[in-house]
Amino acid sequence: TISAFIKSVRGSDPDAALYWLAKMLYAGESARFILRRLIILASEDIGLADPNGLLVAVSASQAFEYVGMPEGIYSIVEATIYLSTAPKSNSTCCYFDARKLVESQGNVEIPVHLKDGNRDRDTLGHGVGYVYPHNNNENHVGQQYMP
């Protein structure tokens, strides 16, 4: 049932999400488990399209812990409706592509211009060639940040 619930929220169908939520709670599913899944969904499926989604999910979890049952259900419902109607983005999943790249490359040397240039800079050459983006009017310098 949790799968149907999450997929309904992800699919932007608050009515279906509330149906599956009611079914889970009626069957005795742990509210904490549901809230945990909403927190995950807020980062995984809504992410940067609406960063407040994570705040809503975490706040719902905290409110539930404070209020308890049965009134704590209101915070779960509020988070469910908010997340169901929020814009969606799974851009945070790009991390896993980066992780695969790191695993496949092994130990890669950090480019000199990205190394800490504060201590022993002159001796080690760290930070040489780094361009500080805030010193550029457009805050974009076209510097290479990947190894």
Report on this model:
By secondary structure, the chain is mostly helical. It folds into two domains: 2-91, Zinc Finger, Delta Prime, domain 3 (Up-down Bundle), CATH 1.20.272; 109-135, no CATH class. Helices cover 56% and strands 0% of the residues. It is built from seven helices and no strands. The longest helix is centred in the N-terminal third of the chain and has 16 residues, at 31-46. The chain is elongated and about 65 Å long. The protein starts with a helix and ends in a 23-residue tail after the last helix. The relative contact order is 0.11.
Distance between the termini: 44 Å
The secondary-structure class comes to mainly alpha
Number of helices: 7
Q: Which architecture of the largest domain per CATH?
A: Up-down Bundle
Q: Give helix and strand order, one letter per element, not per position.
A: HHHHHHH
| Arithmetic mean of pLDDT | 92
Rough outline: elongated
- CATH level 1 name of the largest domain: Mainly Alpha
Gyration radius, in Å: 22 Å
Number of domain modules: 2
CATH topology of the largest domain: Zinc Finger, Delta Prime, domain 3
Largest sheet: none
Q: How many beta-strand segments? A: 0
- The helicity comes to 55-70%
- Taking pLDDT < 50 over at least 5 consecutive residues as the criterion, the unreliable ranges are none
Please report which band the strand proportion falls in: under 5%, 5-15%, 15-25%, 25-35%, 35-45% or over 45%: under 5%
